[in-house]
Amino acid sequence: MARKDRGSSGAWFPRWFWPSFAGPAFVWLLLFFVLPFYVILSVAFGGLDQIFLTATPVYDPLHWTFGSFRDVATGLVTTHSIYQETFVRTLVYVGIATALSLLIGYPVAYFIARHAGRAKTFFLVAFIAPFWISYMMRMFSWVNLLQPEGYVNRVLRSLGVIQEPRLWLNGKPSTVVLGLVYGYVPYMILPLYGMLDRIDRATLEAARDLGGSQARTFFRVTLPLSRQAILAGCVIVALPMFGDYFTQTLLASTRQTAMFGNLIVSSMDSSLVNQGASLVIILIVALALPMFYYLRSTNAARELAER
Amino acid sequence: MSHPKDRVPPLSRREFLRRAAMTGVAVPSLAAILAACGSDSGGGGGGGSTGPSSGGLQLARPDNPVTLAVTDDNPAIADGLSPEAGPLKIFGYNDYIYKKVRNQFGDRYGVDVEYTVFDTPDEMVSKMQSNGSDFDLLVTVTLENVGKLAQGGLIQPLNKTYLPTFEDQLWTGIPDFYDVGRQYSAPYVVFTTGISCRNDLITDDIGAMDNPYDIFWDTTNEGQVHLLNGSRDTLATALLRGGYDPNEDDPAIMETIKQDLLDGADAMGWKYDHVDYTELSTNGWEIHGTWSGQMVYYQYYLPKGLDITSLSYSWPPQGAAGKPGLVSHDLFAISKGAANPVLAHNFIDFMYEPDNALANYTYEGYQPTVLSLDKETALAKGFLPPSLDYTFVTEDMLPMGVTELELAPAVNQLYQQIYQEVTGGA
C-alpha cells in the first residue's frame, strides 16, 4: 500500500503525488534536450556516409570514434586556426555586446522602476512592443536602414557627422555588435527592472537618512541589491548571443565577422557535419561554465538572505 | 548559511552506484531507441558505409562516361500504366517551376501538385536519404549528384515510353556522359556561370580583360564584390582564374587555391550568396558571380531610376581572352519510393511541351533544354532584355564551357573544408 503524506489542507495524498508535478518538465527535458543532445553526441562521435557525405550517427557509445572531435579541439588551441579565430572573435563580440546591453539596459530599467511613476506600464509596453515583431524581421529592417542610401547614412550626412555614406553592411564588426545589442537588450532590461522594482524604498530612505548621498546610496545599496539581476541579465543575453548566427549573416556576412554559430551552421550544411556536432558540444560546455557560476552565485545569495 | 540539516547531502557511495547503474541501463536503451528510429545509413541501394560506398562510386567525366546500372530491385515502371490519383509531390529549388504551369498540369490530369523546396543540393540529398519516399519528382538534381542518387538507390530509372515529347524536343547536343542513355535523369534547364556587374558603377570592361576572374580580386572594388555561395562555385572561381580544372583534386594545387581565396577574402571582404537579383534593389553590390538564368530576373528588381542596360554579364569563354568558364544543366529525376511515378513521368514530358516550356521560362528565367525555345522567341516575347541577349545559352556554347562534376568523397570534403576556411562559415 502506497505511503501517504498529509498536505497543508489536511488531505492525504500518495507519496508520488507532489513529485509527479515535475513530470511534464521531465518529459519536456527528455524529449527536447536529453534526446537531441544524445543525437548530437552520436553525430559528433559517429561516421560519415561515404557516398552522400552525410552524417551516420552511431548511437552505441561503445562504437564512438573521436577523430572529428579531436580535430576541432586541436583547432581551438591552434593559433590562427579558423576555430580559434572564430571562437575568440565571438567571445569578444559577446563580451562587448553584453557590456553595452548592461550599460543601456540598467539606466532604462532604473528609470522605469524608480521614476516612471504611473507611466510605468506605458513605458514597459512601449519598450517591449517592437520586440513582438520577430527577430528576423527586425534585423531585416536594419538592413534597409543601414544601406548606403538608407536613413542612418542620410541622417548622419545631414548632421554633418559623415561626408560620404558609411558602408555599415560591408563586414563591420561594430554593425554586428550593435545588431546583437539591439536584438537582445530587452532580455537584459526585464530582469533588471524586476529586481529594481522590488527593492524596498524604505531601505533606500534609510540610507539617505543615515547621510548617504544619492550616488552613495546607489552604489552602496541599489547596485549591490541588483547584483543578482545584473548577473541574470548578463547570462540571459550572453548565452543566446554566443550561438547567434543570424545577426552576422544579415548585417555583415563576411569571413572577418563570422561567429561561432556561423561555423556550426556551415558545418551542419556540409560534409563537415561531424565537426559541426563537435562544435555544438564545445559550445554547450563553454556556456555551461557561466551558467554554473550563475547558479552557484544565486544559491550563495539565497543562503545569505536566509541567515 | 543554511542549517546543516537542510542541506542536500552529497551522494553516498551506494546512491552513486545505484544511479550509475541506472544510467548504464538508460544509455543503451536510448541508443537502441534512436537506432531503431534512424534510417538505414545510406539509402537502399548500398549507399551506406558498407556496400559500394567508398570504392564503388564511379566519377563520370566526358572522357569517362558512366552508364548507371539498372538493377532488379530498382526497375523502371512498366509500360502503359495509367496516371495515379496524386497528389504529385515535387521537391525542388524555390520558384523553380512556375505555379501557373504546375496548375495547368494539375488541371490536365485532375490532380493536385504539391511543391516542397530545398535550399541547397546538399540539403536535397540529405532529405532524400531520410524521406525520399515523401517525394515523387526531384527538381533540380545537379550533375554531380545524379550518380550518387542512382548508385545510392534513391532514384528510379526512367521509362522513356512515357516521355515522347521529351524525346522529340530535347536539345540534340546536350551531353549525357554522367548518365549514358539518360536512364535515371532528364535535363531540365541549362545555364552558364559568369560575372555580372553594374556598368554604371564599374568602368572595367570585364569581357576584355586578360583574365576576367581577376575582377573579383581587384581591391578598387573592395566591399562591393559577391561570390556565388557553395563550395563548388566559390572554389571554381579561383581554380578557373588560376587556369585549373574546376574539378581539380591535386592537394598542392588546392593549397594554392586556398591561399588565393584567403588573400581575396581578407583583401576584398567578399560576401557569398546567390540572390543577387533581390539585392539589386538595395544597391548592395557592384560585381557578383552569377548564373545566366538569373539575368532575366533582374528587370523585375531594378531600383528606382536604374535601367536594365546598367547591368552587364560576362561569360569568360566569350571574352577577348577566351578563358574557360562554367556551363551546366540541371536535371529531373524520379524518387525510387515515388507514390506517383507515372504522374512524375507525365510531368517531365509536360515540361517539354513548347507552350509550357515557354511559360515556365518567362517566370523562371532559366532556359529549358527544349528545341522550340530559341533566342529570337525569347526576345520577341519580351522576356529576354535585348541588352542581355548574349546571356541566352545556345547549343553551340556547350563545347566552349567546362562543367563542375562529381568529386571523390575525400576531395569533396576538402573542397568544403577550404570553403569553410575562406568564408569562416559566414
Structure notes:
The complex is a heterodimer of chains A (307) and B (426). Helix content of chain A is 67%, strand content 3%. Chain A has 307 residues and is mostly helical. In chain A, strands 1-2 form a two-stranded antiparallel ribbon. In chain A, strand 1 (4-6) and strand 2 form a beta hairpin. The longest helix of chain A has 34 residues, at 82-115. By secondary structure, chain B is an alpha/beta fold. In chain B, helix 6 packs across helix 13 and helix 7 runs parallel beside helix 13. Chain B is globular, with a radius of gyration of 25 Å. The two termini of chain B are 49 Å apart. Chains A and B meet through helix 1, strand 3, helix 3 and helix 12 of A and helix 1, helix 3, strand 7 and helix 13 of B.
Topology:
The complex is a heterodimer of chains A (307) and B (426).
Chain A: E1 4-6, E2 12-14, H1 23-44, E3 47-48, E4 55-56, H2 67-76, H3 82-115, H4 120-128, H5 135-145, H6 151-158, H7 173-198, H8 201-209, H9 214-225, H10 227-243, H11 246-251, H12 260-268, H13 273-306
Chain B: H1 13-37, E1 88-93, H2 99-109, E2 113-118, H3 121-131, E3 137-141, H4 143-151, E4 155-156, H5 164-169, E5 186-198, E6 225-227, H6 231-241, H7 251-268, E7 271-272, H8 276-279, E8 287-291, H9 295-298, E9 311-314, E10 326-335, H10 341-351, H11 354-364, E11 367-368, H12 375-380, H13 409-423
Parallel strand pairs in B: 1-2, 1-3, 6-7, 6-8
Antiparallel strand pairs in B: 3-10, 4-10, 5-8, 5-9, 5-10, 5-11
Helix pairs in contact in B: 6-13, 7-13
